[in-house]
Q: What sequence folds into this?
């Protein structure tokens, strides 16, 4: 019996060495290319289902596994009017923000050569622009992780309809220069301008135009033959009818305008899905592509490793690529969505598995659904999800209560108005019955300023002893600042209503006074009093009349054209509104001066003087309101 037991133990040990151990997300049986190809009909069905549900006219898909692109497919049309079908090899999509990762790769190439230092002040590399340091300088590392603290620049006047009207990258950097609104490395805030700076640094350090460097050092070595940053080449692809048209759905599909972006490093690339699959392949092969080392292995690892987190309990961001949880696995992804286009890729590094998708509609569901299906079918997670321990709320729970606004918005440009219109995300944290709520959903506390609600995780940051901002787990590119009462949209909406009501009352009173006989005949007033009163009324009525005209012109300027047309510059109506705003600013001191003179000379009755003073103060509130939203002047 002892002998038999010993034999069993030996056999168990021997057989155990022949069976691969299960690791996170790994099956005992190795997944083959054939296994993946068997599920492509299901993948096609998922894509077509999403396209139909989300009104997507065309899409492309590429599946990458262990160094090869094993499956590509196109669906629908790249141009509905001309009925040109999608070709995953030759159809070029506006890649939106996807090229940011290629820019990060170019930066790391120069770091690898010793020509750049990730933690050096960027002022060392820049010539025409310099940035005032906060308590820390802006570095290449902070730009790559969207943690530089730079303000969001205006999107008005950032593109051209004609390829030969595109301004140089250096001119764009100068004309759209922004300021820091907090010190680097504190929190993330997505920055297109920051990646424009990175592309400009590539240009300055390499001595080559940005698009030339990218072609010679990335696109050509990766055999991305249907990809370019060069507006002239984009135009050539357009003439060959290889460019997909972007569409937005507003009850029906509407074509977005053709554009040539000035900020090429952030959003100026056109590429086919198969070309993007080559780039994905290079990342999964640790920097190699068809025997050529495009980027050193350690730098590829640096690219796809968390380089910054808003909280240690949240997911992180690499160098313009982010972590997400999908199907119980930690995967890396990059997205690029802009004016009728959406592009995504996902990477499961441990298995050299990746996908690239593109669509000529702004929808992210295709890539997520497809990759999730692949993971669940062939790469299920074997790691049990760690459950966070629930803890009692801290005693100072009230300090979390408030409105939290996404920091991805302009602070010094007219596009700050997007907050008032509702384009900038906001969340409310409330306290009721000794429980905290995130937009009405109960939150569970886990310690160290970390909370969860309905499977989502959020964290708070404290500065100067006070809760300053909130961060969300699957939105690593931005954080949410806690805003005070006088910054809240509800306060400004109510203020505008009151201002408009008083302006209308004054204009109506002024109009009625023209037709209604005055109680005191004008010949009983002194000439001096009559002159001042006429001037005071005239100045106030002119100011309020201009105010109403300004609001009407501004409303028309902001609503009478397609939202995307603002990228081509300010319209004449928007410029007229800016001129009117300056006129209001000039008139306001005269309104206040007349109020002072009326009081000093004792004109009118006490109630008349009070009425005029209230209207003058209303003018001050109006100008303050306009200034708060950067509506005074040409803040484009």
A:
């Amino acid at each position: 019996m002892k002998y038999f037991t010993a034999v069993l133990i030996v056999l168990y040990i021997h057989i155990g060495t022949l069976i691969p151990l299960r690791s996170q997300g790994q099956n005992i049986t190795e997944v083959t290319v054939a296994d993946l190809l068997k599920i492509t009909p299901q993948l096609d069905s998922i894509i077509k289902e999403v396209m139909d549900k989300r009104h997507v006219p065309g899409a492309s898909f590429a599946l990458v596994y262990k160094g090869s692109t094993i499956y590509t497919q196109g669906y629908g049309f790249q141009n509905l009017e001309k009925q040109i079908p999608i070709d995953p090899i030759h159809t070029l999509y506006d890649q939106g923000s996807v090229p940011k990762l290629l820019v990060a790769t170019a930066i790391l190439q120069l770091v690898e050569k010793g020509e750049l230092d990730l933690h050096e002040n960027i002022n060392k590399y820049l010539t025409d622009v310099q940035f005032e340091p906060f308590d820390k300088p802006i570095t290449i590392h902070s730009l790559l992780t969207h943690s530089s603290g730079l303000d969001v620049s205006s999107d008005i006047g950032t593109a051209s309809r004609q390829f030969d009207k595109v301004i140089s990258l250096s001119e764009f950097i100068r004309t759209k220069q922004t300021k820091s609104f907090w010190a680097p490395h504190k929190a993330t805030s997505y920055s297109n301008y920051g990646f424009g700076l990175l592309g400009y640094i590539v240009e300055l350090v390499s001595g080559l135009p940005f698009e030339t460097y990218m072609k010679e050092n990335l696109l050509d070595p990766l055999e991305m033959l249907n990809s370019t940053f060069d507006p002239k080449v984009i135009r050539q692809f357009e003439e060959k009818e290889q460019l997909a048209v972007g569409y937005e759905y507003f009850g029906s599909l509407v074509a977005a305008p053709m554009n040539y972006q000035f900020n090429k490093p952030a959003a100026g690339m056109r590429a086919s899905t198969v070309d993007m699959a080559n780039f994905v392949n290079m990342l999964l092969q640790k920097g190699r592509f068809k025997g050529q080392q495009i980027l050193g292995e350690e730098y590829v690892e640096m690219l796809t490793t968390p380089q910054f987190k808003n909280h240690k309990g949240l997911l992180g961001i690499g160098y313009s690529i982010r972590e997400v949880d999908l199907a119980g696995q930690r995967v890396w992804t990059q997205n690029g969505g802009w004016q009728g286009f959406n592009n995504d890729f996902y990477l499961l590094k441990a298995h050299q598995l990746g996908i690239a998708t593109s669509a000529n509609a702004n929808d992210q569901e295709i890539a997520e659904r497809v990759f999730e299906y692949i993971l669940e079918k062939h790469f299920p997670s074997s790691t049990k999800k760690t459950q966070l321990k629930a803890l009692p709320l801290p005693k100072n729970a009230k300090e979390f209560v408030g409105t939290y606004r996404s920091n991805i918005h302009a602070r010094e440009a007219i596009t700050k108005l997007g907050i008032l219109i509702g384009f900038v995300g906001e969340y409310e944290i409330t306290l009721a019955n000794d429980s905290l709520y995130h937009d009405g959903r109960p939150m569970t506390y886990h310690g160290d300023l970390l909370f969860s609600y309905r499977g989502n995780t959020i964290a708070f940051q404290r500065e100067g002893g006070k809760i300053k901002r909130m961060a969300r787990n699957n939105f690593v590119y931005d954080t949410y600042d806690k805003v005070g009462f006088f910054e809240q949209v509800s306060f400004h909406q109510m203020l505008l209503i009151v201002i408009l009501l008083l302006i209308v009352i004054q204009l109506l009173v002024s109009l009625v006074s023209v037709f209604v006989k005055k109680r005191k005949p004008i010949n009983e007033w002194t000439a001096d009093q009559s002159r001042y009163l006429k001037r005071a009324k005239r100045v106030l009525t002119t100011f309020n009349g201009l105010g109403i005209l300004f609001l009407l012109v501004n409303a028309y300027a902001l609503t009478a054209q397609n939202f995307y047309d603002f990228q081509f510059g300010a319209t004449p109506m928007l410029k007229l509104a800016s001129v009117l705003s300056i006129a209001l600013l000039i008139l306001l001191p005269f309104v206040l001066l007349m109020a002072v003179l009326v009081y000093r000379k004792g004109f009118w009755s006490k109630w008349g003087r009070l009425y005029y003073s209230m209207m003058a103060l209303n003018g001050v509130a109006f100008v303050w309101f306009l200034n708060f939203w950067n509506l005074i002047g040409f803040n484009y």
